[in-house]
Amino acid sequence: MKKKKVIIVLLMVIIASIYAGKLKVSPMEDLNITAGVGYDINKDLNGDVEYRVPITIYDFKTKGKGGEGSSIQNSTKTRKVNDISSTTIKTEANTIAEIRQQRQLNTSKPFTIGTPKITIIGEEQAFYGIKNIVNILFFNANINDKVIFTVGKGKAEDILRVKVDGYPSSADYMEGMVKYATNYNFLNSDYNLLNIYVTLDSEGKNLVLPYLEIKDENIAIKGMALFKGDKLAYVLPMEEGKIMNMLREKKGKGILSLQEGPDKYINYDVTVKKKVKCNKTGGKYEFIIDLDFKGDIIENTLYKTIKKENEKEFERLMSKKIEIMCYDFLGKMKNDYKIDCLNLGMYAAAKYGRESGVDWNKEVSNSDIKVNIVVNIDRIGIGQY
After folding, report:
1. pTM of the model
2. DSSP states of 35-102 as a string?
């Protein structure tokens, strides 16, 4: 019995040694671990394009023989990591694939794949198109298709270089910012590479991404980037983007306000669920969007006390306000943007047939769109002064 146990242990050690060699596992200090990636372009007078891809990598600092915060020098010795910072490096070339070659020629360590927290597409690159970026990333089976994608005002490089107190890199800060924005602005959680790939390849869908901007030496989500095909078409300010998200996403969370004066208002922390119906009459499409709001009153200075009659009045007034907001946005979408921001074409294509050659942006812009609003109060809190 003891011999069998010894043999099993020896076999496990041999197998582990073989796989460790094949996997080529390296300590982190021997790698350039990527925190964030950006995509920028420069266009010359002839229209030729030069690609610029800034990458933020982690710098690992330790306590060792070199003193407080010295860099790890010997990868064979285990040393306690004391501090992590980051560095942003930039590479330029005529193609994105060539950038990978050039980047490795200027560093002594291999770059990791699949570790970036966020990818930022510079505004000029977004207007130029992102299909080449998506294609080259999906050619690599080791890529992380869940990495967050955003569009940045100006150059992606400038945003990646911002230093944020308490974070090793701006990429770490932006990842959390986009991830948790779903709680209050009706954003979804699928602004990732896989969602981009599926959206660009789906009939009746248009891509939207969070739009980042440097404001007062900090980074903030300032709007929604609306694409037509693989090219950026418009940047919607956040208040307008909030309404679009409310109408676009199947489910979302946010805060809505009903205000009658500077000191008379109610804030409504709400979850909204959406359903869409599509009909076609005489060659013209009709869409009916049902929005069901349910949430809590988290702040109230409008009513002295909220009784049953006040609840009904609030629900009626809030329904009316949301309805006006929605129809104002729909008018702008159909007459100004002329893009199907809400992916309504997807529902029509599913019901009446795909690959029919229909321009869904045009059809939706000329369609009748109706919105039905239902508002319900769940809770009004434990009391008020």
Report:
1. 0.84
2. EEEEEEEEE-TT--EEEEEEEEEEEEEEEETTEEEEEP--TTS---EEEEEEEEEEEEESSHHHHHHH
